[in-house]
């Protein structure tokens, strides 16, 4: 009505032509729709096929089809006569098939991104457990396929799917079974997709089965406001509706406020509506004082009449103007051709013009009918609220604009949304409660991905967001806090001298080193005494000097590692220990050679002296030096950082470089120690006044025990403790050699000097000669 009045008043559009219209009712029934179509074609109350009995101007186009099903049903007849049909309902790709529907045109924008917007809403509120209710038709199946795919992509699960058959043959009682199934579902959010016709009985079914726990998401195609107004409560209260954005048509609301039955007496639908809306008596013909003479449509509640510019209103308005512009171009063409039959309108001639029609409506928007030029729909997200006092409101709470850049395409104002009475805050719809920071999701076997358990992050990993599928590792220079929800900076540490452990080991090393030098000084002072001269005093000096260096080499393992200290610590440790062990081996060999040299005709006499022991030390130390040299050339030790051994710390240490070389050096020392132990053990009972073999045997036993224990302990410790184990092994094995070999001699020198004389030595030798069949002499 508004669009036709606007066109008839426009002097530039269809001048000297007055447009009119006929209104025919349609039903969600094939039979009723065909009957109305025949009535329209024949112009009679009783359909007369292939005849037109109306005396007034013949209609040239049809604006209708609130649903694609109705358009298809009407096209069954209208396509026979090539009548153009412009659908004001939602866009349906099926109607774009020009081979099947050459005379059907669509104005509504495409809705291919509707499912994307709905899922964005679910993701925003973390609704991952959602039910679907759709109309059982082609549009419903397409929507179901698209939304399932998008939900799966975003990690949202479909709890259930209910299909509402959009056929009149579906028993009404079956609808009452749907609501209980929905109510029993664990999902609190339900998406409903369909149109008012296909879902009309669902609105009646909810009257007897009130569901307040569910939140509904739907589109404006299903007019949620149209329902029995006498029902004060609604299961569909506080629903969220995706409505296509429209521009406001100038003067449209002013027109609505002035609409009255008296102004349009031929409109029987308006009169019936007015009587119902304003409770007029049955004999009402014209507005009277007792029938709200000042009544206006804007006084009606929302469930009776919506004053806002809906997508149906907007598409209908544009459809009327599209027909007017097509007629205008047709008349201009006939006028230019001077067609005598210019006043005769053939509907089929409009088809070629409507296919390419484009114009700007009064709201300033460019309108196309060509499917290839139709834009994607933009959506307002509205919140329908039905208050207990009977008032209703449709509040815009957000929007979804697919064409906008990512991040600006979706917006929602949570503080504006009014949830239903059951929820005091934003409702939740999940299968499992969210996993907080510090936990990760663990899928339940045989259940959807939205159903999961929460498990604590593994050692060394964190999760700093909710519902993380997998915890993440902290960077190497950071470590997880106790709650495992964030990473903390690690402290850089090493076996420092200031550290209590480092200070203890360093002081121990220095004390033993000083003690070694004191023993060396004591031996030098008493170098001419029998106990010092026994077993080659030169070897004793070399051994004491080697042990002092062993104690000092342990200091290289402490402090901040550098390239120099890493290169020196293992090589100096290996060579000095080799010298010490080879000196002990030389001492042991000296005892054996001295014993054999006393036998008549023995060839061992030439080896007795300093030549053989020194040769042993040089050869053994040279082999160790070659191993260390190869180590340094092939894969030398280097400063390294160990971020994993101690939580919260980054350990600065020396990396051995080549573990094979490291264990070869240790193994070679172990071989020398084992050789010394075997030789000393075999010579432990050789007769001699100051025979050292017993002490060497015990010292080698201590030495081997320490280093055999060192290997597994070293491998099982990490960080600073690994360095401390090596330092402790160096100190304890060196102290064992020093104590077992030299402390007994110091005891004799300092506390029993009377035993350290030549007379006592001769006396002991005489006693041994009486008890043995052979004579033994001192090794000196």
From TrEMBL:
Domain G-protein coupled receptors family 3 profile, residue spans: 501-765
GO-annotated molecular function: G protein-coupled receptor activity
Record InterPro entries: ANF_lig-bd_rcpt, GPCR_3, GPCR_3_9-Cys_dom, GPCR_3_9-Cys_sf, GPCR_3_C, GPCR_3_Ca_sens_rcpt-rel, GPCR_3_CS, GPCR_3_vmron_rcpt_2
Chief localisation class: membrane
GO cellular component, one term: plasma membrane
Residues spanning the signal sequence: none
Location(s) in or outside the cell: Cell membrane
Top-rank taxon, per record: Eukaryota
TM segment ranges: 501-524, 539-559, 571-595, 616-634, 660-683, 695-715, 727-750
Membrane topology (UniProt): Multi-pass membrane protein
Keywords: Cell membrane, G-protein coupled receptor, Glycoprotein, Membrane, Receptor, Signal, Transducer, Transmembrane, Transmembrane helix
Protein family membership: Belongs to the G-protein coupled receptor 3 family.
PANTHER family for the chain: CALCIUM-SENSING RECEPTOR-RELATED, VOMERONASAL 2, RECEPTOR 118-RELATED
Name this polypeptide is given: Vomeronasal 2 receptor 593
Origin species: Monodelphis domestica (Gray short-tailed opossum)
